[in-house]
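Work Package 3 (structural annotation) set out to generate three-dimensional models for the target panel prioritized at the project kickoff. During this period the team completed the workflow that converts sequence records into discrete structure tokens, so that structures can be stored uniformly alongside our sequence database. As a representative example, we reproduce one entry of 365 residues exactly as it appears in the project archive.
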Amino acid sequence: MKLFSTMLNKGLINKGIDAEIWVPSVFFGYFSKSTIKGLGKWLGYLDKWVLFPIILRIRLLKNRYRNGEIRFHICDHSNSPYLAHLPLLKSAITCHDVLAIRGAFGFEDAYCTPSKFGLILQKWIFKNLLKADKIATVSELTLNQLKDLSIGINAANKNWQVIHNAFNGDFGVLPKDESTEKMRAMGFSDEVPFLLHVGSSLERKNRKLLVDMLIELGDKWNGIVCFAGEEIDPDLASYINSRDLHNRVKSIQRPTHQDLLALYCSCEAFVFPSFSEGFGWPLIEAQACGVPVIASNIAPMPEVSGGAALHASPYHAKDFADAFLSLKDLSLRDRLISNGFENCKRFSLIRMTEAYISLFNLNRN
């Protein structure tokens, strides 16, 4: 969660609070180019779980970190084992989701099936996470799921609360000529409309639904689907080819930030049919760029959209297709865009930082 830690650090400094980011040192990882397959990952674990805890304890011996006003924050729940090396009453942690943890406990709706090692790792992460007195979850869904998993833990006696993420970058409407130039450079035609999906190829992202939308729309719409992020996985590529839709699907791998803005600003609609999310940044990114959003009706998508999106079942492509066709009503389209801009105000860096300052129980300078 490099983007999140950088964002929170910036927000705290803007508030006049002295803040710095600690990250694991790379030592064993320098040897990760070993020809032994998979060895690099294990060397990285040595840096993260053996070397860095030692460094943490050495740093905490310094007088400045014994100051009563010093607070420690772990920016991602997957690093919860570091709580064992920090002063617990002065430490807090952000839980971005419990998808992998729920997957380890057998919840199929998490769409995160763990490996044998992943099963052990996630249960270790969860065990340490429960030790935290102060936890910020990024959505009501994540908080409720965490509480449901915490059998035997009285969450009422702990400071577990929802603090929505802020934008992790600058998102907004690009000038038309700028976005047009960038779209042409990426090989898009001015005459061909497109639906956009932003994200990975993980199963829970439900990319296949956008292809099925094309099938459901038939001759009612002649545009294309664009997947931005990771490349299309072999199974989805095979499915696309089997339906003879290869000419109507485009992939933009790892677009730059400016290219991503152009994609958001130029698409006819942003489609976000995930089966499971902890928050869902792309949803508000699209809203900030002035595009109508069609997203899953599964939490936390309605929570994040703030009622400024159309929601449909991620299990039914027809429902998504019908929602898209409803955007022909220009008054509906304009209302969604306007409400989307208003919704985005909830996710300002100032607002998020104020909430964390309260969680840390720090006095502002």
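The chain has a mean pLDDT of 93.
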